[in-house]
């Protein structure tokens, strides 16, 4: 892109699109990142993902179950209205709604009350050792704007609900949403009244969804766009030697895994010889796990841009880098066949694998590779790949027998995996992402205990015990943590964060 008039416009693309502009409806990284340019949280993250002041300037613990926060004075929402304690109380309560996918995090914050116009206090009913991590997950909305536009609760994305918050936004952040065309283009402009300091020079952001890898690559090389969040792994080597383009490397805090319906008595999408649901049998779950040649996926499909794992969390920090916990079941087709026979399925069964085709790196390709591997143990898999806009509501309804999913973000603690994914499905977001709907009371109790344990040594022991139990039961099949190489024009300077978060206020277009 030539310098001059356009030099402060960032034009970028990705294979997918944000789900909604409602900041509490969907807890999905791309959606959170896009909304995070408009909305802010009381505490933010710096370049190393450390917690720093945001809409709150300071805080102190006022007791073992309470925190008090001083709010940043002089902050205004994009419509000019002042930011106050009323907005914080409203937003936290809104985020607890049944239609919110951050309800588990908002609920863990306890009850929030207004002390004065610029002070709030959170009072919990039980200890929360990762309170700040949860707080960083709750975007602050304007109470007045929400009342005016009748968006007092998050929209129900799975039910295809549309509200004013679907396409409109009113935050306090560095950029103002100008227009939203789902699946096509989303534009932002710089907020001149932002309280923070811009470290970059981007005045305007134009985002285009470009689903096709080759088209996205061509647009970057030609200079039509300035930045690509997700170049295909097979294209990275070429990009490294392409004039005018550079690759920015970095790992991502994201684990890719396979989930299985373990609740229904029969397969919703498939057929088994005995008419039962094979995934309710631990031996079948183990067989599928041991039939996966993860090294071939890593080397051939991911071009070594992945780290195979046995632990269903985004970061090794969560399990204290315990190598024993991160030891996969061995790839062993003969053992897998024996397990299938032992479970009563010597001739396998048929099932559909639901998979996104524009969310994770090589998502559809991985599903196709898994189907071929499972065919060797006589499991016939039909890959049902679809865009994320269709895929996520489908899995949210648990309208699936076998599915691919990814989990990640800025938080490296085990808690934000345990409560949404490992726990039995309950209220206030507990077990919301247990889309296989398994019920494991022992695992549930162990995970719940780790949630409230504040003694570091005791909590470490509990966390490791939860991982061991989950691994033993194979409630999910972990695959790998994906690496995220970004690609940009040579005149674009960006900061690569491990949560795959593109912070526009840090970007410089020269």
From TrEMBL:
Belongs to the bacterial solute-binding protein 5 family. CDD domains: PBP2_NikA_DppA_OppA_like_2. The keyword Signal applies. Residues 50-428 form the Solute-binding protein family domain. Keywords: Signal, Transport. InterPro entries: Peptide/Ni-bd, SBP_5, SBP_5_dom. This is ABC transporter substrate-binding protein. Transmembrane segments: none annotated. PANTHER family: OLIGOPEPTIDE-BINDING PROTEIN APPA, PERIPLASMIC BINDING COMPONENT OF ABC TRANSPORTER. It comes from Ideonella margarita. Residues 1-26 are annotated as: Disordered. The keyword Signal applies.
């Amino acid at each position: 892109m030539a310098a001059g008039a356009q030099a402060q416009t960032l034009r970028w693309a990705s294979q997918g699109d944000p789900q909604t502009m409602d900041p509490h409806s969907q807890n999905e990284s791309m959606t959170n990142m896009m909304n995070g340019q408009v909305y802010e949280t009381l505490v933010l993250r710096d370049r190393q993902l450390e917690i720093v002041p945001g809409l709150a300037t300071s805080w102190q613990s006022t007791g073992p179950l309470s925190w008090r926060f001083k709010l940043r004075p002089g902050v205004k929402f994009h419509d000019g209205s002042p930011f106050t304690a009323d907005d914080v109380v409203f937003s936290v309560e809104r985020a607890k709604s049944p239609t919110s996918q951050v309800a588990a995090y908002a609920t863990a914050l306890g009850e929030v009350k207004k002390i004065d116009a610029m002070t709030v206090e959170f009072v919990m009913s039980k200890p929360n050792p990762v309170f700040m991590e949860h707080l960083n997950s709750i975007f602050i909305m304007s109470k007045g704007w929400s009342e005016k536009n009748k968006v007092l609760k998050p929209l129900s994305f799975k039910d295809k609900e549309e509200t004013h918050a679907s396409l409109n936004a009113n935050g306090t952040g560095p950029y103002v949403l100008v227009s939203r065309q789902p699946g096509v283009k989303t534009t932002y402009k710089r907020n001149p009244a932002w309280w923070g300091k811009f470290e970059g020079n981007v005045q305007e952001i134009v985002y285009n969804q470009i689903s096709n890898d080759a088209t996205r690559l061509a647009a970057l090389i030609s200079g039509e766009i300035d930045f690509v969040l997700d170049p295909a792994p097979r294209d990275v080597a070429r990009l490294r030697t392409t004039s005018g383009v550079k690759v920015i490397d970095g790992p991502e805090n994201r684990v890719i895994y396979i989930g299985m319906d373990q609740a229904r008595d029969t397969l919703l999408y498939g057929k088994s010889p005995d008419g039962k649901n094979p995934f309710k049998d631990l031996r079948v779950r183990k067989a599928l796990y041991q039939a996966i040649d993860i090294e071939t996926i890593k080397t051939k499909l991911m071009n070594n841009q992945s780290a195979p794992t046995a632990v269903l969390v985004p970061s090794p920090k969560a399990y204290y880098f315990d190598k024993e916990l991160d030891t996969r079941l061995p790839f062993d087709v003969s053992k897998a066949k024996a397990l299938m026979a032992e479970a009563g399925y010597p001739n396998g069964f048929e099932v559909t694998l639901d998979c996104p085709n524009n969310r994770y790196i090589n998502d559809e390709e991985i599903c196709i590779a898994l189907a071929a591997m499972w065919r060797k143990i006589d499991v016939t898999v039909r890959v049902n790949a679809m865009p994320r806009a269709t895929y996520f509501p489908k899995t949210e309804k648990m309208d699936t027998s076998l599915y691919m999913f990814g989990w990640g973000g800025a938080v490296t603690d085990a808690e934000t995996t345990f409560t949404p994914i490992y726990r039995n499905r309950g209220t206030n977001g507990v077990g919301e992402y247990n889309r296989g709907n398994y019920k494991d009371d022992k695992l549930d109790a162990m995970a719940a205990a780790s949630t409230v344990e504040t003694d570091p040594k005791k909590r470490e022991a509990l966390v490791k015990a939860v991982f061991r139990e989950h691994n033993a039961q194979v409630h999910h099949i972990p695959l790998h943590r994906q690496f995220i190489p970004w690609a940009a024009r040579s005149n674009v300077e960006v900061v690569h964060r491990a949560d795959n978060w593109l912070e526009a206020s840090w970007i410089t277009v020269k």
